[in-house]
Amino acid sequence: MEEPGYIINLKTITLANGYSLDFEYPILETVIADNVIIIVLDIPFEINYNRNIFAISASGDFLWRVSETEVFGCGLESNSCVYISAIINDDGELVLFNWCSTAVIVDPQTGDILRKYQTK
Question: Model-level pTM?
Fold first, then answer.
């Protein structure tokens, strides 16, 4: 299956079909998982905004937004632990990483949390 095409310009993603989505914060990175576009927003350190990962379809349909979850201890409140990266691991799973050394494995189609682990 061909991966969806898109262009990133700061806070905007423009899909191959011409549909554009604007976000409140700049787009830090994107990952394709199961033909779903995973978008990680770049949140300034002083902003408490830990739901900064979104998933959309190739046509621009909103699929999910990362849910709040308990994080492993890091001295910060859980709402301060923004996500900083998303990868596809060697097992083909979508893994989200946050500032609080917590990795969250989610279903790319639904955003359901499958499991999590401490990274440090």
Answer: 0.91
